[in-house]
Amino acid sequence: MSEYGGLTEPRTLRIERLLPGPIERLWTWLTDPGKRAQWLAGGPMELRVGGRAELQFRHAELSAERTPPEKFRSMEDGHTLRCRITACDPPRLLSYSWGEDWGEVTFELKPRGKDVLLIVTHRRLGERSTIASVSAGWHAHLAILADRLNEREPQGFWSTYMRLEAEYERRLGVSDPSRSDTVAPTSVNKPEADQR
Question: Which residue of 1, 57, 139, 178 has the lowest C-beta tally within 10 Å?
Fold first, then answer.
């Protein structure tokens, strides 16, 4: 859980996590609304290409940290994304649109002994500040998933997110006006200090 996500193309984030298996167990944490609500977002999901999915985000229910930072107060009572399944090959691959205009997310699961390599790829992201925000979001959500799978009390979602957003902004040069709005691809990087 100490690796940051990286860009494989200017608008494509990839983040990997080695998580406890077996693969079928991790698949249920991606697809079962009750389990998914504990780390990302609940809501129904039709597991077929073309099927509908509704992600019902309730960040206050992810950890003991209930109150969002000021900039996210509009999401305090939750928010919903309507998505469409674009690929489904249980228990190895799941892709869906991220709302109507936030790109597409793909989850790939690869067995690694008793563990499973989870690869999350979020395509068609926007400008650098959006990429930094989305990167921090996935990093924080996946940290909670790892905590749940390892039967640990989840770390605070919002404090983790805010710390990670600042780090991703630094890595992507968000505050550097000399950089363009698109970012050159980077590999998945190790952090200077161990952070989940």
Answer: 178
The CATH number for 6-65+80-172, chosen from 3.30.450.40, 3.40.50.10540, 3.30.530.20, 2.70.70.10, is 3.30.530.20
CA neighbor of 131 nearest in space, from 94, 178, 85, 171 = 171
**What are the tens digits of pLDDT across the range 70-120?**
877 777 778 999 999 999 999 999 999 998 888 999 999 999 999 999 999
Q: Tell me how crowded residue 128 is: count the other CB atoms within 10 A of its CB.
A: 21
The CA distance from 107 to 59, in Å, is 21
Q: Report the alpha-carbon distance of residue 78 to residue 9 in Å, rounded.
A: 31
For 117-153, write each residue's pLDDT tens digit.
999 999 999 999 999 999 999 999 999 999 999 999 9
Residue given tokens 């205009």 in the structure block: 101
Q: d(Cα 117, Cα 131) in Å, to the nearest integer?
A: 23
pTM of the prediction? 0.88
